[in-house]
Amino acid sequence: MHDQVNICDLAFGELEAFVTGELGLPRFRTLQIWQWIWRRNARAFDDMTDIAKDVRVRLAERCRIVWPEISLVRKSEDGTVKFLLRLADGEHVETVLIPSTDKAGTTRMTQCLSTQVGCAMACTFCSTGKLGFTRNMSMGEILGQVQAARAWLGDTLPERPIIRNLVYMGMGEPLLNLKEVMKSLETLHHQRGLAFSARRVTVSTCGIKNGLRELGDSGLAYLAVSLHAPTQELRERLMPRAARWHLDDLLAALESYPLKTRERITLEYLVIGGLNDGPEQARQLVRICSRLKAKLNLIPYNPTPDSPYSPPSPEGLLAFEKMLWNKNITAIVRKSKGQDIEAACGQLRAAQDAGMFGNA
Ligand code: SAH
Questions:
Q1: Which of 3, 32, 181, 216 allows an S-S link to 258, with CB 3.0 to 4.6 Å?
Q2: Pick the CATH number of 69-356 from 1.10.260.40, 3.20.20.70, 3.40.50.150, 3.40.50.720
Q3: Helix locations, the chain, DSSP H
Q4: Does position 140 have pLDDT exceeding 60, yes or no?
């Protein structure tokens, strides 16, 4: 028997080719199946009640519905929920739901998605970086994080969309898994599926030359860039592999990055106590920000076990923020959420690898 196709890995066009070619079904079945998979989050072909029994049997013979399984859930006091997910080959990745309350008082979630098992970039402050790289995630695995969280939340589209925003800021470097990441963005965008508009999706990169332009030209997501240091020299210390693309070249690429009206690039700046939070760095950061159509997010460093770095002091962070504000740079401090549940990138999996939870 040949390996069955995981239907969740197929983009719309691929599903159509499979349905009409491989299965010999009429074209209209594609949209029906697509909606069951993406909108209604069906777990089995037998759930697809408006599809004739013999067609469901044929589907079950030729393909499968495979989503990641939740192997651990941790809830923070601040409402952050972190999932450790098991992929079909037994690998584990993390995804996090971060709550916020909208004007009407309704709780909405932003979900942080992983794109790779581990990461090859080895940034010195990052838990995932320490795990090393195992493999890329497929489109079905990337979006399976959304489907697993939706099922857990009881999120049903279009009636109750609880997950409102997606950020590709979990484990891995999205631009090093460009093909599946782009496919996932197209699928997210599909109006008869999850229907996420580009304004609700952000892809975060440490700055990889290949793929940056393709992401921009697609217009399928907003861009965030992990800057973390205002000079090439300091960036090399913090993110040695990312810094192989020289800061000057990265900034030049960001200057010509295609943006829609009112769209801004988000620059992420990890604030590490005594290392990149002084007046000199603030001045250098101001120069960078004034060159770009960008907004700046300051992220206080979330300490990880055995790390040589420390978080900034509250006064230090405030002083740094003030230096930027004084130069008319809009810097927003992103308070770390979920600190009681190892919510920083890669921390939960690292804790599991270290045997903190027994064998999940
Ligand atoms: N590889 C991509 C996306 C994943 S990392 C990127 O580099 O942008 C997502 C964000 O979490 C990055 O900005 C990363 O630098 C940050 N991060 C990693 N470890 C962290 C820590 N210990 N504390 C706070 N932020 C961290």
A1: 216
A2: 3.20.20.70
A3: 12-17, 28-34, 53-62, 127-131, 139-153, 178-189, 209-218, 232-238, 247-255, 279-291, 314-326, 347-353
A4: yes
